[in-house]
Design a protein that fits this description.
Elements: E1 5-7, E2 11-13, H1 31-41, E3 47-50, E4 55-58, E5 70-71, E6 74-75, H2 83-87, E7 90-93, E8 105-107, E9 113-119, E10 125-130, H3 137-158
Antiparallel strand pairs: 1-9, 2-10, 3-4, 5-6, 7-9, 8-9
The protein binds iron/sulfur cluster (2 copies).
One iron/sulfur cluster (SF4) is lined by residues 15-21, 88-89, 122-124.
Length: 160
């Protein structure tokens, strides 16, 4: 399914366990993600470096066949899955996709300004039901911001 980000304004979301979000997605990994999954995978190589994102990403068999950890519609590493997978179908950007997207503007607990979107291609998103933002969303977004920034710093610094 093709990503379709729209501004987050409290749309309710309930996962239908369809597994569609594990196809056609690039999954950036923080160093913590890799250590966590690496322990589970007994050091099997499951990453490749992405020059655009400047982080490792999960290797793929083929683009539309999905993530190497996808087993039918289930994530084989569910308990250890990358932070960015935990965030889905929400997405955090540092610039708005459109000048009109002020509704998506939020502030992380550390004061960083972000824009929150939701991927409307996810069948679990209910556009009619609007509710308060889940309490875990901004803390998770902040953790992702920090972990990926540290990961980029590490790879830039070591030239890996
Ligand atoms: S696409 Fe949405 S509903 Fe389907 S598994 Fe992913 S998060 Fe759940
Ligand atoms: S790690 Fe799991 S949740 Fe994330 S894309 Fe792969 S199969 Fe899906």
């Amino acid at each position: 399914m093709k990503e379709n980000l729209i501004p987050y304004r409290g749309q309710r979301y309930t996962c239908r366990m369809c597994g569609e979000c594990c196809h056609c997605r690039t999954v950036p990994l923080s160093r913590d993600d890799m250590q966590r999954i690496g322990r589970l995978q007994e050091d099997a190589d499951f990453t490749e470096y992405n020059l655009v994102l400047r982080t490792p990403v999960i290797s793929r068999r083929e683009w539309d066949l999905g993530c190497i950890f996808l087993d039918d519609r289930r994530c084989r590493i569910h308990q250890y899955k990358p932070l960015i997978c935990r965030l889905f179908p929400y997405a955090m950007l540092f610039k708005p996709l459109d000048d009109e997207d002020e509704v998506a503007k939020h502030t992380l607990p550390d004061g960083t300004g972000i824009y929150l979107y939701i991927d409307s291609s996810c069948p679990g998103v209910d556009h009619e039901q609007i509710e308060d933002m889940p309490g875990w969303l901004l803390p998770l977004a902040q953790r992702i911001r920090i972990e990926l920034a540290l990961t980029r710093f590490y790879y830039d610094d070591t030239g890996k």
